[in-house]
Amino acid sequence: MKKIGLTGGIGVGKTYVSKIFQQMGIPVFNADEQAKKCMVEDANLKAAVQLAFGENMYINGVLQKEALAKIVFNNTEDLAKLNALVHPLVKQKFENWCTQQATLMVIKEAAILFESDGHLYLDAVVCVSAPEKLRIERMQKRDGSSVEQIESRMSKQIPQAEKEELSDFLIVNDEEQLLLPQVLAIIKEME
């Protein structure tokens, strides 16, 4: 089984591209969704987050996302600390998920694939790219974030150009180039 990473900065359209892979019969594991799920469901992780960031990160068992985001997105050391707690769990969930797939190829979609060293356990990485102006517009539409909030989040990830350079394949999602031929070319090359 070939394990392919799918990454890119916020607003590039990773999830949209992953849906195309799914329509082509390739299962997709969304690492970001799994991380959020672990933060809510895993008792050991919840306890570790409270120990690291304070008891008030969970009130009546409910994760205080905004309070945690305010801490980790304003301090790179705190963000690294949170990632060190979450990523080993997500990696294990991905490995378990892979054993349940009956395909020759799977996709692991992850925004911070390189930052978490997730790429080290994969056969290849596909980077989705889009112009920054379009990325900001998409994020504003998606969750109503301000340009400042979006730029702040972008600054916490490695630059898009660096992700592209580190990747084996590039999909340009600029609303001008067709996505399906780009996805099909990658699938053909990876078979």
**SS strand fraction:** 5-15%
Given helix and strand content, the structural type is: alpha/beta
The major beta sheet can be summarized as: 5 strands, parallel
Mean pLDDT: 93
Distance between the termini: 10 Å
Q: Please provide the count of β strands.
A: 7
CATH homologous superfamily annotation of the largest domain = P-loop containing nucleotide triphosphate hydrolases
Number of domains: 2
Radius of gyration: 17 Å
Order of helices and strands: EHEHHEEHHEEHHHEH
What is the strand arrangement across the widest sheet?
2-5-1-6-7
Can you walk me through this structure?
- With 191 residues, the chain is an alpha/beta fold.
- Helix content is 54%, strand content 15%.
- It is globular, with a radius of gyration of 17 Å.
- It is built from nine helices and seven strands; from the N terminus they run βαβααββααββαααβα.
- It has two domains: 1-27 and 104-191, P-loop containing nucleotide triphosphate hydrolases (Rossmann fold), CATH 3.40.50; 37-100, no CATH class.
- 29% of the residues are buried.
- The strands form two sheets. It has a five-stranded parallel beta sheet with strand order 2-5-1-6-7, sandwiched between helices.
- It has helices at 14-23, 31-41, 43-53, 65-72, 76-99, 132-143, 147-155, 160-166, 179-190; strands spanning 2-7, 28-30, 58-59, 62-63, 105-109, 124-129, 169-172.
- The longest helix has 24 residues, at 76-99.
- The model has no long low-confidence stretch (mean pLDDT 93).
